[in-house]
Specification:
Blueprint: H1 3-8, H2 12-23, H3 29-42, H4 52-69, E1 73-78, E2 81-86, H5 91-98, H6 108-120, E3 123-124, H7 125-132, H8 137-145, E4 149-154, E5 162-166, H9 168-173, H10 187-196, H11 207-218
Antiparallel strand pairs: 1-2, 3-5, 4-5
Length: 222
């Protein structure tokens, strides 16, 4: 894409803003560049020469422009990319409009299982059940269907059990840029060290922390 072609159409900031709005989920600079390349190929144009740094700059310009405009939408950094969303202080009006058409609510057992996976990953079903003390089959199937966890290979233990790990959608669901942002709580660390004597995970969180975050997000404002 040459300079003349860029001048004839919207600038990079406008394109990035449109992609964030249309996608509705987190977009990384790499995925945005892929979309730019596909669009150029479909139009018979030369591949664009925008760098990842330029795309990052454009996304941040969109974020600052929305913040300065004072409108009810914003761009936030999440899951190693950006997501356009409604502002939290406008949440009660959005919920009233959408009624019950919200994301599925996670049960307490599902949140506990998800937190165990987040801090032990990759981990097997047996490791999850050792911590929780009950079967995890049904919950694991549900979390896989929701794309909050993924199969991350197989263990070398007898029977080669499956490993489970969290996904980018997990980060999006809880509004996190990375697992390092999980809030700290000691309970899971204590149970891990008591169960198998392995070193405790890095400070970060546990089931109660995830539960509090989801419950806070789902409480109506006011």
């Amino acid at each position: 894409m040459g300079a003349a072609d860029r001048k004839a159409g919207p600038d990079l900031k406008a394109i990035v803003g449109a992609l964030l709005l249309a996608h509705g989920r987190a977009l990384t600079a790499e995925r945005i560049r892929e979309a730019l390349i596909r669009a150029a190929e479909a139009s018979g144009e030369d591949p664009p020469d925008f760098s990842l740094a330029q795309i990052t700059q454009a996304a941040n310009e969109v974020r600052r422009a929305l913040a300065a405009a004072g409108v009810g939408i914003e761009v936030v950094e999440v899951a190693h990319g950006w997501r356009m969303q409604t502002r939290q202080d406008c949440g009660r009006w959005v919920r009233a409009l959408l009624a019950k058409a919200e994301r599925p609510r996670l049960s307490r057992p599902a949140l506990e299982t998800l937190a165990i996976i987040a801090y032990r990953q990759p981990c097997t079903r047996a490791e999850i059940e050792a911590v929780r003390g009950v079967s995890a089959d049904h919950i694991l199937r549900s979390l896989l269907e929701m794309e909050l966890i993924r199969i991350a290979g197989r263990s070398r233990l007898p029977g080669r059990p499956l490993f489970f790990a969290t996904t980018h959608k997990f980060l999006e669901h809880f509004g996190l840029r990375s697992l390092e942002e999980l809030p700290a709580v000691e309970e899971l660390r204590r149970r891990e060290t008591e169960d198998d004597g392995s070193p405790p995970p890095a400070p970060g969180g546990g089931p109660e922390a995830l539960e509090r975050k989801v419950e806070n997000e789902q409480q109506p404002d006011g």
